[in-house]
Design brief:
3 domains, Polyamine Oxidase, Chain A, domain 2, binds flavin-adenine dinucleotide, alpha/beta, single chain, globular, seven-stranded mixed sheet, FAD/NAD(P)-binding domain, five-stranded parallel sheet
Length: about 450
């Protein structure tokens, strides 16, 4: 069997190599370590992930595998998330907890929700975009105040610019009784689509990758800058070159196609239309215990840069020394909404916001602040995504180039999806009759 060349040593690339057999693969990785987005680093005594990471899949195979990868040492907790809105804390999802929203907004949300449910869903054409979906799901008042505002912050564009093919069960579509009951008081049951999640006890989410990477043949510092499919040739930033027999890419699709010397113009054009968010992760270490018990929270106020705040020691108590808290705040940008360039100013503003939200006791409590730039965040499901992706996929399929992972398949993939895809790619490499289905958002 031929040697398999893999681009990228994130969890998808590691999974392809692990299932194919490390001795049959070589991985070229731009960075100086494996893990990609699953990398965690220690700083100021705190373990920081690349934004909040938990494993919530119900897939039993993955649950067992992930448990084995950390020798059974993981935390398993009830999924618990909260929302911040103009000084109020509202349990997640807010649409089932209207009782925590201040009046008169609370009653206006209920009234517009009930008006939105007069028409039978079957009698309506499918929603043309996410904004229409939101209005039907929640009514205009709640939709405009909460998810539409959050969409502009997190997805960095208007809801009308997004399709509905990424939603799945991620945004809770409530029944009338969920909203009316949650208007009167606590429902007494969670309507969050995730029930429980797992997280390694020590070392951060990164610990899930160590056993996958054992004995993998990874060449570090090999950033791909050139590929010629006709000649089966790869070129790297350090000036070196390599040929390949079978190629699997896990690197971001726009970057991959931009490197391709012999890609036709329409494929290049399609790749240039793909959009993703980029992140500034502002990490604030403070000398007091965390104020909230939830691992993360969503911030709806549009005058705040802070979009989602993760509290590292609420994932595992081993993530921070006793009496300390580590807050990682996502600030989101994209080609639609450029990120601020002055990182010191961003850090100062985020600290001020944490103090205002009551999550940080004051400037004196701050032990350290850092800002990490993350060039790839979420794939944006705008209206260009599908036709552009279909064209690129058709082209790469004809060449026999395989793709695995979030940014190569260009979808809302989680770590379990990446591992399962890696396993499927390995089966296909062993037996070409095994088909690799395109990713569909499910659980
Ligand atoms: C903020 C955030 C929160 C998330 N939360 C969760 C969660 O709670 N649970 C969950 O399961 N998943 C979560 N995810 C998704 C998860 O992180 C990804 O699905 C997964 O890590 C993607 O792995 P990958 O291998 O496909 O890509 P990556 O991790 O991006 O790996 C790609 C690798 O390719 C390398 N590379 C890039 N360009 C080149 C190049 N030109 N040449 C060579 N190498 C290159 C990179 O350095 C990297 O190592 C989250 C993601 C984000 C951004």
């Amino acid at each position: 069997m031929e040697t398999v060349t893999i681009l990228g040593a994130g969890i998808a690339g590691l999974a392809v190599s692990y299932y194919t057999g490390h001795d049959r693969c070589v991985i070229y990785e731009a960075d100086s370590h494996y893990g990609g987005h699953v990398y965690s680093e220690e700083w100021d005594g705190i373990v920081w992930d690349d934004g909040p990471h938990v494993s919530y899949t119900k897939n039993e195979y993955i649950q067992e595998l992930f448990a084995e990868l950390v020798d059974g040492e993981f935390e398993e907790v009830e999924a618990d998330v909260v929302n911040y809105y103009q000084g109020h804390w509202i349990d997640h999802p807010a649409q089932s907890n209207l009782y925590q929203i201040p009046e008169p907004l609370r009653s206006a949300c209920l009234k517009s929700f009930l008006e939105s449910r007069v028409a039978e869903p079957e009698a309506q054409a499918p929603p043309a975009n996410y904004q229409e979906w939101l209005y039907r799901a929640f009514g205009k008042v709640f939709a405009d105040t909460f998810p539409a505002a959050y969409t502009r912050k997190y997805w960095t564009t208007e809801p009308a610019n997004l399709g509905t093919d990424w939603i799945g069960r991620r945004v809770f579509y409530p029944k009338v009784e969920d909203v009316t009951g949650g208007f009167r008081g606590p429902l007494g049951r969670s309507t969050y689509w995730v029930n429980r999640w797992r997280y390694p006890s020590r070392g951060g989410f990164y610990t899930y990758t160590h056993k996958l990477a054992e004995r993998a043949r990874i060449r570090y510092g090999k950033k791909l800058v050139y590929v010629h499919f006709g000649e089966r040739l790869l070129g790297f930033e350090d000036g070196t070159r390599a040929t390949y027999e079978r190629l699997v890419s896990t690197i971001p699709l726009p970057e991959f196609i931009a490197c391709a010397a012999d890609a036709p113009d329409d494929v290049r054009e399609a790749a240039s239309l793909l959009r993703a968010t980029r992140l500034l992760l502002v990490r604030v270490a403070a000398q007091h215990p965390s104020v909230r018990k939830e691992p993360w929270l969503y911030v709806y106020d549009e005058d705040k840069l802070s979009t989602r705040v993760s509290i590292q020691e609420n994932f595992s108590p081993h993530n921070a020394p006793a009496g300390m808290t580590g807050m990682s705040v996502e600030v989101c940008g994209s080609a639609f909404k450029p990120l601020p360039t002055d990182h010191d100013a961003v850090a100062r503003q985020v600290v001020r916001e944490l103090i205002e939200m009551g999550l940080l006791e004051g400037w004196d409590a701050v032990q350290g602040v850092s800002v990490r730039y993350c060039p790839w965040g979420q794939v944006i499901y705008d209206h260009n995504r599908k036709p552009a992706l279909d064209r690129i996929k058709e082209y790469l399929d004809e060449l026999g180039v395989l793709r695995a992972g979030r940014y190569s398949q260009w979808g809302y993939l989680m770590t379990h999806d990446c591992v399962l895809r890696g396993r499927k790619v390995a089966e296909h490499l062993r037996d070409r009759k095994v088909e690799i289905p395109e990713f569909e958002i499910a659980e």
